[in-house]
Write a structure and sequence with these properties.
It is built from 26 helices and 16 strands. By secondary structure, it is α+β, with helices and mostly antiparallel strands.
Length: 785
Amino acid sequence: MISSVKALWSKSDGHRKGVFYRSSLVYILLAASIPGFMIGLLVYHFATHQLKDDISDLHYEQMNERVQNIDDQFSYLELGLSNWAFNPTFGYRLKSLDFVYYFQETWDVTKSLVVLEGSHSLINHVELYIDQEQPIQFKTEFYNVYDKTTIDMYNNILQQPKRMYWERDSHAGMNSLMLIHKIPGESPVPFGVLLVKLDKEKLMNLLKTMTPYNEGTTFLLDKNYEIMLADSDELHPLQEMLIEQIKTSDQLTGQFIYDYGKESYSVSFGVFKRLADEWIYVSASPMTLITSPVITFSKSLLWISTLSLVIALLLAVVVSNRMYSPIQKLLNQIDPERRRSSHKQNEFQTIREHWLNISMKSAEMEHKIEATMPILRNTFLMQLLQGHIGNLSEQDLERRMQTLHWEVGAHHYTFVHIYLTGLHRIDQRMTSSDERLMTFAAYNMAQEMVAAQFKQGYALNFHDLSIGIFIIEEKETEMDSNQLQQFCEQYTNAVNELLRLQVTITISRKTDELRKVRNLYMEIERAASYRQFLNQNQLIRMDDLPKEFTFDDIDYPFDIELEILQALRSGDRELVLEQLRKFIDAGCLQKEHYAQQNMLQLLGSIQHMMLQSGINPIKLFHGENLYRQLSQIRDPNKLVRWMRDVVIVPYLDELEHRVNAQQKGMMNQIITFIHQHYKDDISLDHCAEMVGVNAYTLSKWFKQASGVNFIDYLTDIRIKKAKELLRSTDKLINDIAQEVGYQQRYFNRIFKKHVGVTPSEYRGNTGEAKKVILSQKSETGPEKP
């Protein structure tokens, strides 16, 4: 039979199936069908010869097995809850833990309760009660308890002498139980309760397994012969009679035949021992219900099994395409040339090789990312210190640092500047390359020591006998003030001993804003002017400088200057003029001539920024001596107007002209890319990365250039191409959706949203229109030229 089926398979469509599928599916179907046939024969034999004689004993044996299973289920629940009660998660810390503040611990408790709730199928839900000044309840999430009834209920549980016990769930009715354990498990004075409520329906289903069929009755009694669980909500007369019969019995376990009405019941009973308590189980099954259908069923099973075997073999050929379709599609995507290849490789071997190849590439990519991460961090910090990204908001800076795997947010930031001195005391003559080598050695030493002592610390090499250290610390766990002092001393000793140099270390103030790190760096640079030129180690703390060394007497507004330069770089005219007014007002607060001096200094900074941006000030201002013009103006308002009209506006016009030219080139590049790759998975972020700008800037430029948003432009191209394919080809809609970059379920919705009809309706309407045109042409004849 197997050989004939395989021959039929290969003749029909076996060439479309893979090696593994052809070689195994027939055997699986046969193996699944033959056991049913064999079971039918065995059931028929035992049903006709032995079942009537052994049914009562068999029922009793089955009862014992199922009772043992039920007992194991309850034991597993008890053992599991006991283990959780002794788990450190539910230890003494919960008594005084602030669950709102310590979110991670609260989250750990919630996860543990979720795991406990899913540890057994009988568990409906789990509750945790903590007796604090304000009682806490987890269900499994965190709640404050204000209901006095609930608090009294849990306090009553805590006052019970038992540490762990079963209790009837009064809220769920007669047919539900709950298991209670006080926590901590090892504490003589518990302060909490772990309460596991069982699923009423599943508990009833478990109890009903003690009867072979749905008829009959099954119930549990406590040691006082009161019903704890029953397969019905109300007490049945049969149950009352069985309870009276068991009360008069001298045995704890046993079986008997009980006649009730026209039925004879096979009754089995026994005892569960549960946590120093005893439960009595009772199961009564109708004898006639068990015996009468089995013989008829066994004969039917023979015929059904035989018929199922034949049908399964026939249907296997019919449904093979649908069964194999997902694997076939996956293989076609992995290896489109596989059908043409003569190599008969197992499908799963092909998938495995492809998966291993992808895994290797993924691991290689992760390794490259890890290797470039220090460079990316160094570049970001350099840009932050030099003010090149000062136009970004605090949230944008934090997001960038998070992408570099730094923890930011509720943190303090500190910058430490280290300058190497005493180089002239070394006997040998030092060249500039030797100085860079010394700086690199000191940088490596600092990097190792920072990584060992600080959770988040990063060293920067300035290559000019100076290095920087950027330290991030959590607000909740601020480092000890002596920790940084100790690090400076250890680093100083290491440099003195290994490099035979002295160091001057300057420690900045703390700030909780990334935007102010640039200011910390500028303060440290200015503080270097107070360094004593002695051949000894020096430590300068910005917080400890005496009043005469502070910078309060410096009237120049460095912060405002930085804002002006950043606004000029970004081309924000309104912000430049706003900050320029603040700049001139800051100078006028002291004396009027300070405003002119500050403006001269600002002019130099602006020209320096122009050179950095690639614009020549001499060419831009036609060789005019701007300093001479500015020195002749003293009125603050005239200073602002002169700076606006003579310096700022020409620069911004030139910058805008260059940006427009660059923007136009970028937009042409992006639009060409969209038309060439619309069928691929392209996004705004991908295109922004391709041209080297952020997604927000590209979105704004694209809207200005095309008049529509990026996604609308891409969707319009895809819909136009889809309409063309629907009109001119007979391809399946699913294939057309993939050709234009959509999955079918999204394609139908998007197409209808933009066109007004579904793709199939559009194709039908287009076909009808073509037929009308063709019929009109056939009636009127060919058109004349």
